[in-house]
Amino acid sequence: MFVTSLSSLGSTIPRGTRQSSSSAKAPICEVRDLVCQPCLLYLFLDVVNGLSEFFEAEGLDSDNVAVWFCMFNNNQHQIANQIKEFSFWVDSFQTALRAIGNVVMVLSPWNNPTTLTRTWCVFQIYVAIVTNARFEVTMGKTQKQSFLQDIHDKIPFFDMLGTIKCEASQTAVPSDYDNIRNILKPPNLKFADLDRMVFRVFQELMVRTVQTQIETSVGADKARWHFVMGQLFLAMESLMDAQTSFEAAVAIYENQAPIRWKAVMNLGCIAETQGQPKSVWQSLLRQALDNQINYLGCAHVDTLETMFMLGARYNRHDEFALGMPLLVACFETGCRLLGDKNPRLLYVVEAIGSGHLHQNEVDEAEQWLQSGYAHAKDMLGLDNPRTIIFEETLALVHVRRGQYDCAQRIYRNVCNQRCRIYGSDEMGTRRIYSRLGEIHQRLGAYETAEEILLECLDVATKRSELFPQLQFIVAVRLGMLYLAMGDLRRAETHLSQAHQGLVQYDGPKFSEILLALYRLCLLNMESSCLDRMDEIESQLNQAEWFEETWSQFFCNGCYQPICGSIYSCEKCPKFVYLFCRPCVSQVKYAALCTHVPTVAFTPPARYFQEKRLELLAQEQKWRLYKAQYKAYKAYCATFQVPLDEQLEEAV
């Protein structure tokens, strides 16, 4: 291997040439010059070992590759009694890298590379981007062995995602950090973009490394590496690749193999995320859980993981009577088995908190979520994916309380973190970004909300095979935005399409479908259009929502689903704060709004009955009117509608 040590980055050698040397061999191909990016804290032999691994993987002859190192921290020393300006070092390195065109970063340790703790090393990634140089990463044999051992468990991968953060890097010369940060601004790059580039090439290296293990293994070992690959793809949120890997593992494993049922469990989770029927994903998860209980018992980490996955998915489909007992049992058994502070239980804590929230137990939810968030922050740090998921759910608590400014800050941070880790077009990132758009709508920032939601809808539609429901969930939010803006035509288009699309995946009673239906009802009330009255009444009955309670519209005073008329403020942005009649009487709105809520929306089941009675009276169809009014009074009696809100009988 030919290594040239550069004492000054100003000594630039064009790509495809090198300095003369008594040991020099024939000139190398231009694509075989590269800049090696270790950290000066690394052991040099570890760097050599990492490069040897890279050359072998690339099929390169190491004796015919020139590797360029910056061996000294030149900017920290006087050269010929002169201190060079910061710009000198920047220009010198950019010129050198543009000429050489290839960068390899040596990772050590694999899950928190020391290289990325030094801002000048981070700067080299930036230069690779702006010069369009090839950027790769490599590991030495020791770190590769450590990686292959650690990656059997998905937790170290998540921890790595939270640990690598270029923005937290440092420089020996403090002003260098600020100068490098300023360099990123003109091309509109952020440290998070550099993180994303590192994650991308690192994930490619991980996949190649595990694929090699698959190709060189047989039998159970081969199946085990297929399973590891599936977990890796799942952590990267590449669902279709994960499904292929887990199916390959299941095809090899015998029925009694414990890891087979972990693969089946993951296939059930993927099926649910892809919008497959409940009968499909529930069958897979139940099959996995029953076999794990039989072979491993209830007090085993594999069994507990499946209990969590099944319970969380029941909750996502509003089946809390099935989901919450599983989650609580999982948590209690996990505490006895692992200890109540074990990081593996954090997802369970978040799911229990989320379950309480979606059952309108806001105080209980906040207690679970704040406790879990505090533990995650202390144990894992703010950038770990397991910490970020608590922030995401806590934002929903703030939304329920009408604290939209707090929710906006949290969602923005979560979006930035997910962009850093998973990328901007990943479906989970778009789901959170659409929530941020919804918050902008509630704050009255309609243009920003529209820009965000249209962008999310475009991405969700183009990638609908990954998460088919997301395009319709975003359409519901976009429809509500247009309803708030008074653009009833576009509101009608998006809400109708969303309702039709969601029904085909989840049936008529799913919470997101009810939201679409509620907003269609509000649209008809706003427009006073009765053309679709029969159709919407039929949809209300199919959803079993022919009653007074708006189960998905929550009072910002008591945090419960609003029963009876919804009261809103006509001076605040439309639909930003919603209150029930008792909270208006108790002036609970004063904590959020200085105006008195005066706009009332009647529950749709009652509204359409009253409109039908008005039409019958206008047409003087008194026999039909009398029968309809009798049914209306029975409805009012059943749901205890206040007398002063009831329609008087026409004479």
Structural write-up:
The protein is an alpha/beta fold. Among the domains are: 2-209, no CATH class; 217-296, Serine Threonine Protein Phosphatase 5, Tetratricopeptide repeat, CATH 1.25.40; 547-601, no CATH class; 611-651, no CATH class. Helix content is 61%, strand content 7%. Mean pLDDT is 86; it is low at 1-31. This is Aste57867_8587 protein. Residues 1-21 are annotated as: Disordered.
What's the shape? globular
Estimated helix fraction:
55-70%
Residue share in β-strands:
5-15%
Structural class: alpha/beta
The average pLDDT value, as a whole number, equals 86
Alpha carbon gap, first and last residue: 102 Å
What's the arrangement of strands in the largest beta sheet? 1-3-2-4-5
- Write down how many β-strands occur, each being a DSSP E stretch of 2 or more residues: 10
Question: Major sheet, described briefly?
Answer: 5 strands, parallel
Name the poorly predicted regions.
Answer: 1-31
Q: What's the helix count?
A: 26
Radius of gyration: 30 Å
Biased composition (Polar residues): 1-11
Region (Disordered): 1-21
Pfam family, one: TPR_12
Protein name: Aste57867_8587 protein
